[in-house]
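Support request, please re-run this one:
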Amino acid sequence: MRVFALLIGIVMAFSGGMARADGEKAGDFDYYVMALSWSSNWCALQGDARGEDQCLPGKGLTFTLHGLWPQHESGWPSYCRTSAQDPSRGQSAEMADIMGGAGLAWYQWKKHGRCAGLSATDYFATARKAYNSVQEPEVFAKINKTLEVPAEVVEEAFLAANPGLEKDMITVTCRAGMIQEVRLCLTKDLEPRRCGRDTIRDCTLQDAVLGSVR
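Re-run finished. Output below.
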């Protein structure tokens, strides 16, 4: 709890690992990884250059849903074969409140959602349910200036806010010296579970940048 107290007081993504398989049969996976992106850092790394609405001042976004990814115990499927109909523009747009934009929702369906063996409607509903099942620590909404923090304080904050989580069920990733994502491992029923070995890749930076809420 020491590191969580530090965060309260101061109110790369590691993409290697087992090779994924493209074009696998939909529904053939073991568990989900839910990735939550720190919005301000995503904007600094990518969104600002694209002129994304998510990055405009006053949005107040903290952790947004990057995706809900079907995962094998080792490796992961993508771009799966499915007979499910793609989502409409309206369905994708409805996910913007938690994902930041409709474009990301569509891309996540195309790359990952098709592998879940669900309709687009059910996949988006499952992703929203997963997002709502995790309590974001209140302290993050109060960050009004850019901080440099040990990456482990972010993990400790989520563990403190979600008593059902354990350290081997969550991992924090960094990119370009910044906190990138919090990734949580969930069963197909969206219960927390231990992450596979190729998913647990904690960022160990002691001075990771955590941009202020915009």
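The chain is about 30% helix and 20% strand. Confidence is low (pLDDT under 50) at residues 12-19.
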